[in-house]
Amino acid sequence: MVKKLKGRDFLAIGDFTAKELGFLLTTSIKLKKKGNSNALKNKTIALLFEKPSLRTRVSFDVAMHNLGGHSVYLSQAEVGLNKRESTADIARTLSRYVDGIVLRTYAQKTLVDLAEAADVPVINALSDEEHPCQALGDLLTIREHKGKIRGVHIAFIGDGHNVASSLAEGSVLCGADFTIASPREHQLPKSVVARIKASAEKSGGTFQSAHSIEEAVKNADVVYTDVWTSMGQTESESRKKAFAGYAVTKKLMGIAKRNAIFMHALPAHRGEEVTDEVIDGPQSVVFDQAENRLHAQKAVLLLLLK
């Protein structure tokens, strides 16, 4: 039985149990079919963004509108998080105005501090450690295209960053088999791997690190990659050198299953982590992913705010 979700925070994908993630995904599917409603009429969220965004900002804004609510966008220049005013004071102030806060930030600690001081739910719209809303949209996309998540083999090629972390834990919680191939100096932190493996043991999913990208994608149902230089990181020749040979090409996709799908969080650096013929090819579902951010976030908003 799924516990009541109203009033809870969503700071990391591991904040929810396997059953709760399943319930969120089922709700996402229902909302996608249903379309607009007035379920969150007279509700307002604050979109507090330290980092710029296309998909995250627009999908949350549209999600609230589709549910009959309202959103207020606040940039770092307007709020001055931790500069003009403390995180705690901002949280206490916004709690008097809005029904929820969506924060896109750098440090995970900023999210935790905001959530501790706020009297309303706080949702992680991206931090340096986690990207749970992206993972939820990804899992929805996999479920749509594969009919299930449990037992699906997901191969992630590239940097062991926030997207990989949230997707790996969310995947194993849902019973998937997750394999990642990363350069030695860009692998998932050991503490994150330990947490993912603990989640896998509870749910029946599996997690492993591959020695090569070919080993990772062999018989994969899903091939996933992301940019080599994430937002806020300094692009360098040494970083490009480390990821040389990690591009997803048509040849690499040929090692995966014939009906494998290709996924990418976007924005993509075409010609680096993926070739045009893959991202624009028939196996690519990257824009289904982008759309599903909207429906997954509608479910999060509905269940946390109503």
Overview of the molecule:
This protein is of the alpha/beta class. The protein has 2 domains: 131 residues, Rossmann fold (3-Layer(aba) Sandwich); 156 residues, Rossmann fold. The strands form 2 sheets. It has a 5-stranded parallel beta sheet. Helix 1 crosses helix 13, helix 4 packs across helix 5 and helix 7 runs parallel beside helix 8. The longest helix is centred in the last third of the chain and has 20 residues.
TL;DR?
This protein has helices at 18-34, 55-66, 76-79, 87-95, 108-117, 132-146, 162-173, 190-203, 213-217, 237-242, 250-253, 276-279, 286-305, and strands at residues 44-49, 70-75, 100-104, 122-126, 153-157, 177-181, 206-209, 222-225, 261-264. With 306 residues, it is of the alpha/beta class. The protein has 2 domains: 13-130 and 293-305, 3-Layer(aba) Sandwich (Rossmann fold); 134-289, Aspartate/ornithine carbamoyltransferase (Rossmann fold, 3-Layer(aba) Sandwich), CATH 3.40.50.
Number of strands: 9
Low-pLDDT sequence parts: none
What level of helicity do the residues show? 40-55%
Q: What sort of overall outline do the alpha carbons produce when their principal axes are compared?
A: globular
Strand content: 5-15%
Whole-angstrom Rg: 19 Å
**Class based on secondary structure composition and strand pairing:** alpha/beta
Instruction: Encode the helix/strand succession as letters.
Output: HEHEHHEHEHEHEHEHEHHEHH
Mean pLDDT: 95
